[in-house]
Backbone:
């Protein structure tokens, strides 16, 4: 791994900053964020920051995008202050956010027109795992593009799954993944609220359920936090509820575009939207239990 | 374990017959079913059969009920040919079906009036596991009632979880369990159908999903069978789809009675009802994928 390899990290938010910090352990990193406070944090972490995205991206071997949605993706590349014109031919763009197939496929086509490859690389794992290079990344990209992105991907991922050769394939798998995660978290909420309402001990019920056919990764992971959602302090926010407003929106939009009915995903989306509407957007996603059951019925 | 302990098994269907056969390895078993064909099968398996349920139950230490729903439960005990009058005081009734809290709590009260205990013992595991004594049983019953039922429970269960002291507690846990199982199977169907519609390889997608945060017991267990639902022969029927029509009905009824919104469970119930309406009731429950996607879009 050579420090001659330079990568611009555009977006130094909750995920972008720890990824930049991790990448700086082996590569030359250029950072940019529209928020001055995030730039200051990055500088404190030893990341070299630049006054504009274009300046950070100019002459970099790779550009990693950690943006919020498809609109930001298009804007950072092709908007008024977009970086596309500054990218050097042969550069590679790594798209790490979950924004859906269409948005990524569209920018991939436009980038190909200027000789720039796109690696569709949506990831899972929170900020802590990002900083430790312990992310799960699903990749859709040509072998050539993947080779160009390899120094960065190897530093960030503990598990790298190549889904297909097309940008968009990674987003497709991530979309299916989020359908299950979003439904499973909301199902765990309904189940634990029902246990409570039926007079069962929710913690004991959770343990019994997780040892059998009702088990899911999310029941084990979010279930205990859902029960903490009733505590005065709530659960620690490991992943915000409004991320699932975004992601379930991507899921139901993708399903609609291929004319596939997904009533469970649609119901889960509504639960997260209800949560956001009730002011729970910045809470841990396990707080969705408070949408179906605002208060516990049995003593904690 | 004493062969002086006698148990009547009422209902010799898909689960009742293998349970009776298993119980006969250690206990004296009396069998009865309303269907003559099932009585013949039981006789072939060496079970002593009786012309009426009351005759089978008379003087037995225990009566195991493997019935279809709450109506059958009430009928077999207190209906026109009901066994309640034939039960000897001090006998114990084991209720092994999933019929919901209210139905079991109601008959428990009536049985208590004639000195008979009820052990609420809904179970999980198919016919094969029933025959091998490898069932998962969740129990709601007083310690005294549990002690009376112990010789039978020990022969049937590899995992026995005592949920509480009230008949109905077992049904409550099973209800919550079925909420998750029913939602997870339907979510796996939506996810795999979406993967297929987005052009991903569903089998490869399934493997990738099951190694991460999207994992569930049901995704791993029913996912491969859901993909077989498109084969000419379909998947082997390990658990019929219309069992989830019954069980999700119990879930949504229970939730409604405690005024708990469960939109995911309700959506899943509708998917199983749609499957039944489309003639898939006798198929494996994983065939629910054909409700959202009648045909595969990518070649198998």
Residues:
């Amino acid at each position: 791994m050579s420090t001659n390899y330079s990568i611009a990290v555009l977006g130094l938010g909750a995920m972008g900053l720890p990824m930049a910090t991790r990448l700086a352990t082996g590569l030359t990193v250029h950072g940019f964020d529209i928020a001055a406070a995030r730039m200051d944090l990055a500088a404190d972490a030893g990341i070299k920051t630049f006054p504009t995205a274009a300046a950070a991206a100019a002459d970099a071997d790779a550009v990693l995008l950690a943006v919020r949605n498809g609109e930001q993706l298009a804007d950072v590349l092709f908007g008024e202050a977009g970086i596309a014109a500054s990218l050097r031919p042969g550069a590679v763009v790594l798209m790490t956010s979950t924004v859906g197939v269409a948005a990524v496929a569209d920018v991939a086509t436009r980038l190909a027109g200027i000789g720039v490859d796109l690696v569709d690389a949506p990831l899972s794992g929170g900020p802590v795992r990002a900083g430790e290079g312990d992310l799960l990344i699903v990749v859709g990209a040509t072998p050539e593009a993947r080779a160009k992105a390899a120094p960065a991907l190897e530093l960030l991922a503990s598990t790298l799954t190549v889904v297909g050769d097309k940008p968009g394939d990674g987003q497709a798998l991530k979309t299916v993944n989020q359908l299950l995660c979003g439904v499973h978290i909301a199902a765990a909420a309904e189940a634990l609220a029902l246990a409570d309402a039926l007079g069962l001990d929710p913690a004991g019920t959770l343990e019994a359920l997780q040892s059998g056919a009702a088990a899911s990764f999310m029941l084990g992971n979010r279930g205990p936090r859902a029960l903490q959602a009733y505590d005065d302090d709530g659960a620690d926010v490991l992943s915000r509820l409004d991320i699932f407003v975004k992601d379930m929106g991507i899921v139901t939009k993708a399903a609609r575009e291929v004319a596939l009915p997904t009533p469970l995903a649609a119901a889960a989306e509504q639960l997260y939207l209800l949560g956001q509407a009730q002011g729970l957007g910045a809470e841990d996603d396990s707080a969705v239990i408070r949408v179906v059951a605002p208060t516990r019925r049995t003593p904690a």
